[in-house]
Amino acid sequence: MLNQVRHGERMRQAMSLFDLTGKVALVTGANTGIGQGIAVALAGAGADIAAAGRSPADGTVDKVRGLGRKGENFVADLSSVGAVQPLVDAVLAEFGRIDILVNNAGIIRRADAVDFTEEDWDAVMDTNLKTLFFLCQSVGRHMIARIEKEGGSGKIINIASMLTFQGGIRVPSYTASKSGVGGLTKLLANEWAAKGVQVNAIAPGYIATNNTAALQADETRNRQIMERIPAGRWGDPADIGGAAVFLASPASDYVQGHILAVDGGWLAR
Length: 269
Fold this sequence. Notes:
It is built from nine helices and seven strands, in the order H-E-H-E-H-E-H-E-H-E-H-E-H-H-H-E. The chain is α/β, with parallel strands linked by helices. Helix 5 runs parallel beside helix 6 (about 170-190). It starts with a helix and ends in a 7-residue tail after the last strand.
C-alpha cells in the first residue's frame, strides 16, 4: 500500500510538470494542420487558446472548447507587421495575459533560384521572419513586464523547419526565412533567459497536413520520403502538439534556444 501511495505521488508530480492549467496561449496559423494540432494539445494540457489566422479557426476553437477550455478566434493577416500590435492588444483585452506564444503562421513559394521573384522573396520573408520577430517582441515585452511584477515565466515557441538545417531546392526565401527563425530563436533566448522567458523552436519533419497533400498523393515522391524516415511514417500534427506541450510547460524551464526536430529521424539519416 505504501509503495502504491508513493508511486501515485510520483505520478502526480510528473504530470504537474506538464500542467498548463490557467495559462493562455496565443497560437498563430491555428486554422488547420500543425497549428490546430498544437492548439488542441495545449488545451488538452489545460491552457486557454487564442487562435489567430487569416480566417476564423472555428474548427480549432470548437475542439478547444470541447476539452473544457476557453477558445477564441482572432482574425489577423500576419503578412504585415501592422497586424501584430492590434492582435496582441485584442488577445490581452479578451484574456488579460499571454503566457505562451506559438509562432506557427507561415507561407512558402516555389521556383528555381534563377527565376525567383522579388515579390515571392518579400512575401515569404515578411510573414515567416519579419512578422515573427515583431510578434515575439510585442509579446515578449508583455511577458517580461508581467514576470517582473508577478513572477512566473513566459514561453515562446517558434516553428522552424527541416530547412533550418538543410538547404532544400526551389524554395530560396523559405529556406532563408527558416534559417533566420533558428537564429532569432537563439538570440532571443540569450537576451530573455535571465528575464524568465524561455524561447525555443520546433522543426517539424514531413507532417500529413493539407499543405503536404500533393506530396502524399505523388506515389514516387511519397515513396522517396518514406524511405528516408526511420520511423516509417509521416508525422501527425499531434506529434508536434506533444513537443509544444513540453516546451510550453514547466518541464522545459531550463531549455533555452533549442531547436527540437520532430521528424521521425529524418535528420539522423
